[in-house]
């Protein structure tokens, strides 16, 4: 039997292969406040409540107080009032799933909708597609302008029908960091008696503080008439540990449609406020501690640091030949187009220089690009980031196209996503450079991503499923 020390040492060794979660060089997946004091606080709070089961508030009344205080704090920031109700969830996807479920149930109960639809811009987070898939709604997507990356409010309004259970907008969109037309869409929804949800998962804990700093922003939250629910992640710019989000509702009657309860079995009465049953109260306690530690003053200071870094990066990118920022960023997310060098190569070059930038594949009129999530920890590294980015663009421009060879591209184009076998898909991935025996992705992912980029959407999704399944085999112990 291994000792505690041996097991912890093994875990520490495994972490050496991961991206750094602190230091400001990972511009995706992680949100770094740059404040070392928060890590110890959040981890200690998490540890103290990790054994507590957040499912049973009768057995663990501490959960009631923690959740009420967290939800109240967030609601005050985002246009809530005394009637506002909410729930702490395990992440933005769960918050969105719950809001979609509540809207679906509400549309059935109040408007008699039997074939529900979900209307959203084509830039809406994939969580809405997941929610529609899981919950049996037909997804209606509204195209966005390739320059501004936002939908026309008139198009959003025209997509709303008698079957629409929910219309969704983003503040800002994750892909491009731009604000959707929230007020116009919410008004059009309200005129038809339709639920409007605002996905503020990435912006909800930064936009209110930018406004306090004097940035002019259109109304986007529960203060907007017609907005019935809103999601906001605390593990993003709330700087809590992962697995922390809040979904807000204008009132308790709307939230009621989120809950699931059952006494139709011989066991104990069941009520699940969220999608989870048993859930650790650790993430809730960690989020509560970080919110209390920073309070509104601390978040305002962090927002000032992050937006200052973002503005410096935007100015620097505009000075690099062949790069441009896409759309009008509302906060601290940037989408960057690369005209002379393939962005997939640029990302690989940046990875070799110690940075991680997310790549986004083409979609309709939107071309593949780079995505940067700027946090306060990046601020002192901006000059280094821009210098390495310029070098990476020059190096990438000298490389051959990462697109697959014509014979491979033709073979992929001939595949039918509905009938192709897993074996054939594995062969395609191998041809694109995936070495499954290595247990991870290749160090340079441009050829693999370019293969995905050239495939139809349905085939992309099959390839991604095959890729993930080839890595997660369940072996190891």
UniProtKB/TrEMBL annotation:
Q: Which InterPro entries match?
A: GrpII_AminoAcid_Decarb, PyrdxlP-dep_de-COase, PyrdxlP-dep_Trfase, PyrdxlP-dep_Trfase_major, PyrdxlP-dep_Trfase_small
In its UniProt entry, the species of origin is given as: Thermobifida halotolerans
Keyword line: Aminotransferase, Lyase, Pyridoxal phosphate, Transferase
Q: Name one GO biological process term.
A: carboxylic acid metabolic process
Q: Which family does it belong to?
A: Belongs to the group II decarboxylase family. Sphingosine-1-phosphate lyase subfamily.
Mention any Pfam family matching this sequence.
Pyridoxal_deC
Q: Which cofactor does it need?
A: pyridoxal 5'-phosphate
Signal peptide from the UniProt entry: none
N6-(pyridoxal phosphate)lysine modification sites are 236
| A Gene Ontology molecular function term of the record | pyridoxal phosphate binding
Protein name from the UniProt record: Aspartate aminotransferase family protein
